[in-house]
Write a structure and sequence with these properties.
single chain; about 140 residues; alpha+beta; CBS-domain; three-stranded antiparallel sheet; 7 helices; 6 strands
C-alpha cells in the first residue's frame, strides 16, 4: 500500500508540537562528562540538550554520545572534563509550530537525529527525534 499524495502532504504538515517529547531530560554545562555519559547509557538515549540552569532552561547546546566517543578517540578525557568542553554550542533547533516537512529537510541537510524544541525566549520546551517522526509515519502507513 502506498501513501496517497494527499496523505503525504497531510503528514508533512503535522506540527512538531504534536510529536515532540515534552519535558525532555537535559543537562547543564558544568556537569561532568562521566556523569552525563552514565545518564545517557542508563536511559538509553543518544543525546541531551544543554541548558543554562534547571530554572531558566535557556538552550546553550547539545551533547551526544557520538561527541563523547569522538573526544575519547581523539584526545584524553579527564574525569574532570565538563559538558561545556564537548557540547555543540548553538545547535539547530525547532519550534513547536514547525512542520515535519521543514524539520525533515533540516535533519537531512545537516545530518542530525535530534532537535531541541525551543520557545520564543530560547527556552527548552521539548525534543524531536528521528524516531518520533518514524513512529508517526508508521502510524500513517498502518492506518492507510
Amino acid at each position: 500500500m502506498d501513501l496517497k499524495p494527499h496523505n503525504l502532504q497531510q503528514f508533512g504538515q503535522i506540527k512538531v508540537g504534536e510529536i515532540m517529547i515534552q519535558d525532555p531530560l537535559y543537562i547543564t554545562p558544568n556537569e561532568k562528562i562521566s556523569t552525563t555519559e552514565l545518564l545517557m547509557l542508563r536511559k538509553n538515549i543518544g543525546g541531551l540538550p544543554v541548558v543554562s540552569s534547571r530554572d531558566e532552561k535557556q538552550l546553550l547546546g547539545i551533547i551526544t554520545q557520538r561527541d563523547i566517543r569522538l573526544a575519547k578517540f581523539a584526545m584524553s578525557i579527564e574525569s574532570q572534563t565538563l559538558v561545556r568542553d564537548l557540547m555543540t554550542s548553538e545547535p539547530y533547533v525547532a519550534k513547536k509550530t514547525d512542520t515535519l516537512k521543514n524539520i525533515l529537510k533540516k535533519m537531512f541537510r545537516f545530518n542530525i537525529e535530534r532537535l531541541p524544541v525551543v520557545n520564543e525566549q530560547n527556552q527548552l520546551v521539548g525534543l524531536v527525534l528521528e524516531r518520533n517522526i518514524l513512529d508517526k509515519l508508521a502510524e500513517f502507513l498502518i492506518n492507510e
